[in-house]
Write a structure and sequence with these properties.
By secondary structure, this protein is an alpha/beta fold. The protein has a single domain, classed as 2,3-Dihydroxybiphenyl 1,2-Dioxygenase, domain 1. Helices cover 16% and strands 35% of the residues. It is built from 2 helices and 8 strands. The chain is globular.
């Protein structure tokens, strides 16, 4: 059976507009351990590596509140280590939940209140 070629398009980045730019950059770097690729303080722009996708944080004076329509999902190798990192950064997280599909997850809020989902698949 022939395989269908991948479409010539890939998600490069997700952009978050925030009035708390410095705090958000620091949180994604320290609480999640993501690497800041580009930081332009004068323009309020940061590009953060999140696997093969990027998270762009854009400073804006006016932003709407967090949306209940979406969350950022991050797959982690070790959820317990991620929870320790969150706690060290001052983020209170609920206990991880196990799902029938076999993964464990926890949902926290970033400094703007956006939902951030961290999950791990079982180790074999």
């Amino acid at each position: 059976m022939p395989t269908t070629p991948e479409p010539p398009i890939a998600l490069y980045s997700v952009e978050l507009r925030t009035s708390r730019w410095r705090e958000m950059v620091a949180w994604y770097r320290s609480a999640l351990g993501l690497r800041v690729l580009v930081r332009v303080v004068d323009e309020g722009y940061a590009l953060i590596a999140a696997g093969s996708t990027r998270l762009a944080l854009l400073a804006r004076e006016e932003t709407s509140g967090p949306s209940g329509r979406w969350s950022l999902g991050f797959e982690v190798d070790d959820l317990d280590a991620a929870l320790r990192r969150l706690a060290a950064a001052g983020t209170v997280a609920p206990p991880a939940q196990a799902h029938a599909e076999g993964f464990r997850e926890v949902i926290v809020g970033d400094p703007d209140g956006n939902r951030v989902r961290l999950f791990e698949w079982p180790r074999h």
